Amino acid sequence: MAPINVFGYEISLGWFGYVIGALFLVWMLNLYNFMDGIDGLASVEAICACVGACLVYWIGGHPSLSIPPFVLTMAVLGFLVWNFPPARIFMGDAGSGFLGMVLAVLALHAAWTAPVFLWAWLILLGVFIVDATFTLLRRLLRGDKVYEAHRSHGYQYASRKFGSHRVVTVAIAAINLLWLLPVAILVVMRYLDGSTGLILAYVPLVALAFKFHAGELEVASNA
Questions:
Q1: Beta-carbon contacts of residue 87 (< 8 Å; ≥ 6 apart)
Q2: What average pLDDT score do residues 107-130 get?
Q3: pLDDT tens, position by position, 133-147
Q4: What is the pLDDT of residue 141?
Q5: Domain edges within the chain
Q6: How far, in Å, CA of 156 to CA of 213, rounded?
């Protein structure tokens, strides 16, 4: 992993960076699989993150980096035509796992050009990172078997509450474009420190995770 800047201090991770990088790749692969549970959500998240990355690359003075995320955006847009709710084609584990891994690779690669881009990617992917991580930690603390299938992610509770996949997918797109993208831009423009921007971006997402019962027992919430 590239050196990272935390609250103004540059930290070189050395060999430990390989461990962190590997964990990041594995977690992104799995969390993307976890979050592909309603029509169009994984596709919309990838498109929003990639479009946001293209924009911050241009603002950050590295437009050549935008080619891979732009190509991925076009590919996923073609799929979204069939995957938008109500979906006629579903992504499946192979598709979601691929997207999670590729997005993680793009983030790590961009960090070597400018470490601030890693913060931008973590912010742009905030909805998926927060919901999946918050849900996993809550289930771990409760002693659940986390390898067993469940429907206790925040977005799953939200889709059942509103009775619509489309409402939740569109709402998450709005969060990505109207909240997370502006924060990522402020970080890349150096108006915000990366770690400060990450906290600012994630606090409302954690509040939403609480609001929509992410990680709670399904029976208890339904009651």
A1: 39, 40, 165
A2: 96
A3: 999 999 999 888 877
A4: 92
A5: 13-222
A6: 10
Compare 86 and 4 and report the one with higher pLDDT.
Answer: 86
Helix 126-142 and helix 116-124, axial crossing angle in degrees, nearest 10: 70
CB 100 within 8 A of CB 26: no
- The tens digit of pLDDT for each residue in 18-76 reads 999 999 999 999 999 999 999 999 999 999 999 999 999 999 999 999 999 999 999 99
Distance between CA 117 and CA 109 in Å, rounded?
9
| pLDDT for 221 beyond 50 | no
For the record, the structure tokens of 217 come out as: 């027992």
Q: Identify the sign of the CA torsion 122, 128, 134, 139.
A: negative
Instruction: Give how far the C-alpha of residue 140 lies from the chain's centroid of Cα atoms, to the nearest Å.
Output: 21
pTM, full prediction: 0.94
DSSP tag of 87: P
Question: In whole angstroms, what separates CA 128 from the centre of its chain?
Answer: 4
What gap in Å lies between CA 62 and CA 69, rounded to an integer?
A: 13
In the DSSP assignment, the letter for residue 153 is S
The tokens for 120 are 């931008």
Structure tokens at 114: 């400018």
The alpha carbon of residue 79 and the mean position of all alpha carbons in its chain are separated, in whole angstroms, by 19
Residue 215, by phi and psi: left (phi above 0), alpha (psi -120 to 50) or beta? left
